[in-house]
Description:
By secondary structure, the protein is mostly helical.
Amino acid sequence: MLPMKDAIANDTKIGTTRLKDDIRQTVTEVRDDLESAAGKAGRRVREYFDTASKEIAHVGDEVTTQIRNKPVQSSLMALAAGLLLGALMRR
């Protein structure tokens, strides 16, 4: 009976080793997938940030140009906006 016990113990050991290897492989694959997804998300965020920065710079340039070309009209618009915001803030 001892050889049967040894065979069962050996099979159990082999099965346990295979299970551990499978778990390690699965964990590695999941980690790699998560790292890849995080990298893609980071690149997209950087792209959106770069696009937004360029757009804000463009709008700033446009506003500066309009102020230089029409200083009186720009000042009146700023005054009107200030009065409107002031009236809204009081409420």
